């Protein structure tokens, strides 16, 4: 291969999007600021399970989980067991779902939501790092910093609140199995919801 062809091939590779992180691989570290102005990094939570939940309060799929009380219940259940739950809002300024810190704090209060923190990722840095596709899109990271699940919250890709009761919840399955020292039964699923508004 000539130097020119090699250079062309390398440039082509550099222009390709990075492969999505896959369960079993280290979860990329990030730094983000939450709706109270506090900075968070993934590495500061080493030794704990971490849930990343991509959120958009105006998305009907996200609303299904919040208006039914499902997301708030999951947040309380798992943070009560020592899990760090970070809601991530990657809507760009001017795009649907973009919120100010004050707006997000009011929303969390109104919904009685209980994440550890809500990260405002308006420049999309964290979202692109994880290749978050939808709201919601769930990532579960184990205490060693390894990704153990990524995908949909459950197996009912609808906006119907009634479906929450009969859904197979992949998030619960992943955390229940991992905390019991068992392999996660389903480590990857296709996320559903509204596209992240980068």
Instruction: Catalogue the unreliable spans.
Output: 6-18
Q: Strand-residue fraction? A: 15-25%
What is Rg? 17 Å
Structural class: alpha/beta
Q: Strand count, sense and closure of the main sheet?
A: 5 strands, mixed
Ends distance: 38 Å
Q: At the fourth CATH level, what is the homologous superfamily?
A: Glutaredoxin
Q: Indicate the overall shape.
A: globular
The domain tally reads: 1
> What is the residue-averaged pLDDT?
92
SS elements, strand count: 9
- Main β-sheet, spatial strand arrangement: 5-4-3-7-8
CATH topology label = Glutaredoxin
Order of helices and strands: HEEEHHEHEHEEEHE
| CATH domain class | Alpha Beta
Structural overview:
There is one protein chain. This protein is α/β, with parallel strands linked by helices and 198 residues long. It has a single domain (20-195), classed as Glutaredoxin. The chain contains six helices and nine strands; from the N terminus they run H-E-E-E-H-H-E-H-E-H-E-E-E-H-E. The strands form three sheets. It has a five-stranded mixed sheet with strand order 5-4-3-7-8. The protein has a two-stranded antiparallel sheet with strand order 1-2. Strand 7 (138-141) and strand 8 form a beta hairpin. The longest helix has 13 residues, at 3-15. It is globular. Residues 6-18 have low confidence and may be disordered.
């Amino acid at each position: 291969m000539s130097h020119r062809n090699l250079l062309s091939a390398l440039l082509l590779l550099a222009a390709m999007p990075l492969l999505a992180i896959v369960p079993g691989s280290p979860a990329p570290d990030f730094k983000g600021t939450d709706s109270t102005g506090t900075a968070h990094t993934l590495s500061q939570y080493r030794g704990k399970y971490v849930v990343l939940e991509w959120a958009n309060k105006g998305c009907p799929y996200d609303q299904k989980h919040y208006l039914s009380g499902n997301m708030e219940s999951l947040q309380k259940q798992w943070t009560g067991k020592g899990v760090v739950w970070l809601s991530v809002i990657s809507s760009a300024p001017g795009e649907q779902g973009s919120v100010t810190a004050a707006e997000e704090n009011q929303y969390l209060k109104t919904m009685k939501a209980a994440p550890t923190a809500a990260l405002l990722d308006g420049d999309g840095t964290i979202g692109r790092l994880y290749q978050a596709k939808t709201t919601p899109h769930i990532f579960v990271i184990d205490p060693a910093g390894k990704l153990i699940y990524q995908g949909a919250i459950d197996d009912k890709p609808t906006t119907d609140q009634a479906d929450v009761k009969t859904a197979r919840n992949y998030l619960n399955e992943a955390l229940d199995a991992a905390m019991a020292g068992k392999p996660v039964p389903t480590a990857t699923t296709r996320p559903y919801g509204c596209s992240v508004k980068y």
